[in-house]
Amino acid sequence: QRLGVLHVGQRIEEQAEFEKIYKNAWADNANACAKQYAGTGALKTDYTRTGKRTQWGLIMDGWNSLIRYYKNNFSDGFRQDAIDLFLGNYSVDEVEPASPLHVKKDWKFLALPIIMVVAFSMCIICLLMAGDTWTETLAYVLFWGSASFGTFAIILYNGKDFVDAPKLVQKEK
C-alpha cells in the first residue's frame, strides 16, 4: 500500500492472479537453477505452483530423481570440471603432454551395461513367456538371471571405473 501497488484495504491474499503469476515465476526460476546445477528440473514444482501435492508431481519427482542419480554418477563429471576451470580451482601439470580431461574408455564401459540389460530383459521375457515345462522355464530364468547378476557384480566390482568423476586436480591450499 505504501508503494501504491495495492489500494487501501486490499490484501495480498485476495490477489489470486498475482499469486498465480508469482508462484509460476518462482517455480520456473527453480527449474532453471536446478537444470544448471543437477541436470533436471526442480523437485516439488507442482506444490510450488498450486499449493497441492499431485500424483503426477510425485511421478515426475521420482523420474527426475532417477535421472539425477544417473547423471550425477555416470555423465556429469565435466560439470565439476567446468566449475573448477571457471573458478580457477584446478592445477594442470605443464610437464604432462596429454590433456587431463581426455580419458580413453575401455570396451567394458559399453559392453557390460548392454549385456546386463539384455540378460535382465531375457530373464523377464522367460518369466512372462513360460516354456513347455516348468524345468525348461526354470533353466532359462536361472541362466539369464545369473548372466544379469554376474554382469551386475562385475560392474559393481569395477564401479569406480564407471563413475564419471571430475578429472581436474584441485589446487593445494
TrEMBL record:
GO biological process: phosphatidylinositol dephosphorylation
Cellular component annotations (GO), alphabetically ordered: endoplasmic reticulum
PANTHER family xrefs: PHOSPHATIDYLINOSITIDE PHOSPHATASE SAC1, PHOSPHATIDYLINOSITOL-3-PHOSPHATASE SAC1
The species this protein was found in: Piprites chloris
Transmembrane domains' residue ranges: 109-131, 137-157
Protein name: SAC1 phosphatase
Lineage: Eukaryota, Metazoa, Chordata, Craniata, Vertebrata
Keyword presence, Transmembrane: yes
Keywords from the UniProt entry: Membrane, Transmembrane, Transmembrane helix
